[in-house]
Amino acid sequence: MQTEAKRPDYGTIVVSAIFILLGIWVLSQTGEMSPLGSVFPRTIATVMIVCSAVLIVVTLLRGRKLQAAASGSVESTPRRVALIMVMGAWILLMPVLGFFTTSLIAFVALLAVANYDPLPARTMAWYALAAVLTVGAFYLLMTRVLLVPVPKGLLF
Fold first, then answer.
1. pTM for the complete prediction?
2. What is the pLDDT of residue 155?
3. Which of 61, 75, 80, 89 is a good FRET partner for 114, with 20 to 30 A between their CA atoms?
């Protein structure tokens, strides 16, 4: 137990490094975009690179505490796998169903993955309203303000 607590969380470091590489790739792909159209992906990629680098540093400095906290959570691995599956399905279905529809479905699916306890009907109704408002606000922000072309798909 003591030797396991001294190891840094290598999984976090590897995933953070992958996100840094993904951010660098995104930045390299925005060169051909219009200046206004590249603002959003460049901002997100930059934030992703910075946050991933900070997470690597924090993990290396506080690895012991993070490892000790993670060892007590049995349910985290299925949730992590579900998170990856939801995000993968969101990416794959976006060109088919459209940005708004797939984002709404992904939002609800991620809420289900994140909740540990069963939800009462009233809370589920509030979550559904929050999902529609949040995804709708992002859709309008991206399409009307930032003028980012989003996949329309079969729906919108």
1. 0.58
2. 73
3. 61
Tokens 């289900």, located at residue: 112
pLDDT at 156: 67
CA distance 122 to 70: 32
Q: What is the pLDDT of residue 75?
A: 60
CB 45 within 8 A of CB 103: no
Residues 6+ apart with CB under 8 A from 119: 127
Spatial contact of 136 and 103, defined as CB atoms under 8 Å apart: no
Segments in the chain below pLDDT 70: 1-6, 63-75, 156
DSSP type of residue 106: H
For 11, counting Cβ atoms within 10 Å of its Cβ (0-12 exposed, 13-18 middle, 19+ buried), the class is exposed
- CB atoms near residue 43 (< 10 Å): 11
On whether the CB atoms of residues 89 and 46 are closer than 8 A, the answer is no
Phi and psi (nearest 5°) for 100?
Answer: -65, -45
pLDDT of residue 3: 47
What's the chain's length in residues? 156
Unique residue bearing structure tokens 């460049």: 42
